Amino acid sequence: MGHYSYLQIGTARALLCRESYYRDLAALFVETDCYRRKETAEDWGAEGQYGYEASIREMSQRLETQGITPLVALADLAEGLGKWTEQPAGGEGPQNPELAPPDIEQVERDVRFFLSSDLETLPYSEFKRVSDSGVLIDFLHWYMDTRSLVRLLLHWAPDQNARIALDLSELTGCCVELDPTKPYASQARAEQLAVATTNLPLVVITEGSTDARLLSEGMKVTHPHLVDFIRFFDYGAGSRPRGGADALAEVFKAFVAAGIGNRFVAIADNDAAAHEKLLTLKKNRWPPTCRILHYPTLPLLQAYPTYDPATGISAPADVNGQAGSLELYLGKDTLTDTNGDLMPVHWKAFEPKTGLRQGTLSGPGKKAAQKRFEAKLKAARSGQAVGIEDWSGISAIIESIIRAFQ
Questions:
Q1: Domain-wise residue ranges, the chain
Q2: Residues 149-160 pLDDT 10s
Q3: Cβ of 227: how many Cβ atoms within 10 Å?
Q4: Phi then psi for 84, rounded to 5 degrees?
Q5: Which helix (H) or strand (E) holds 253?
Q6: Which of 3, 240, 326, 349 could form a disulfide with 176 if both were Cys (CB 3.0 to 4.6 A apart)?
Q7: Is residue 264 classed as helix, strand or coil in its secondary structure?
Q8: pTM of the entire structure?
């Protein structure tokens, strides 16, 4: 019968590969996804369980960072169906399925049926339909970008809380032996990066090295599954480059001029100064591989304490778009002083082009928030977090980066 690897989504198994595994599937995973589970007494005689596994949400977000949205995947499907009667290059691949060329709606119906079927309880009369659907998926694997095919399988999965796994268990038995200690996912990913710029990580440009470092470390807590898929631009170890929206704009334009292969996002503070300085930049037409963003609107900032030194008045205000520096996204716990009060935003001058008033935490307030965030990061890394830490601001920023190309 042979030994097979396969992609498992929920209870459905697709894309079987005899005596080996598809490297383009392995490249979708990272080494922290690897699992190795020994056989139990009830499973005596069977191979131990081994492979790579992630949640549907995690895998979907990875594909989103590479620009593989459901709409992109559907367009790739349409192109693949147009090649229904073609033989793959080199004569490799499956024979054309003995089915009439389907349309996209039929593909969706068949794939949804396939993914929702439980082979253990499936009536015998339905086995042929399941088998034909499996053949259809195998066929499309040759004519579509693997990421697009997987994105559609995830999009159409009946249980969005299910897991997706590349099961390599059968390849660790006799005759076909993989070494479970080797990083097969990392190797496959490295092969892709060497030949295809579309698989390069999404690069994020911030206003400076501090923002880049704090966001990068924060993402390891809120979105650890994206660590190998999103990279924050390093302004230079040990250097103190000029920061702010001006520096961000210069790096952004340099990336465009250099024509770098990575897709990239420039993300600035959500304050009046950044909106003012990037106003002209955002009006220009830029390549489709880049985006200009600000930190997103945050509920915490809709009624945030403020202080006007010109009048001495303290009052809550919506500071989104006027005072949203990174410090205000580090968590409510980092913004609360020793008295249990939120550190206020101090109002400054109005920006002439936008008419928005700039606000910021005081200098000591910014340093205090950063210091508390560093302590929170350290606790999370060491497993000493107490579970009540506020990561909503960091999470919102990462989510906005993920959605930048939608």
A1: 4-195, 200-402
A2: 999 999 999 999
A3: 14
A4: -55, -40
A5: helix 245-258
A6: 3
A7: strand
A8: 0.78
